[in-house]
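Researcher: Structure for this, please.
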Amino acid sequence: RFVETGGASVLPGGSLRLSCRASGITFRYLDVGWYRQNPGQERELVATVRTAGSTVYSDALKGRATVSRDSDKSEAYLQMNNLRPEDTAVYYCHTVPVRRLIPWGPGTQVTVSP
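Model: Predicted structure, token format:
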């Protein structure tokens, strides 16, 4: 499973670093992504870090985020800068694509408001 931490309430323009720790899976052999979701909306993939370290970002976060991983620690990270109110969501990490036998973690709440 995954456990996400690092969410908080911040002002617009602020920064946050989210962390995700995996357990019970072969983390180093899996592409991992950060997803976010708001109530009533579908979960969307916003950043991916592949096993070799290459990265992909959604248009929503491109230029404002850096995704990384430490496979020795089975951890992934999402550094977000210049946060906007529309970044408000619960953030999750999971495999890319989602492997349905792996449960979703609790997520971590990011709230961006004046």
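Researcher: Any notable elements?
Model: The mean pLDDT is 96. DSSP finds no helices and ten strands in the chain.
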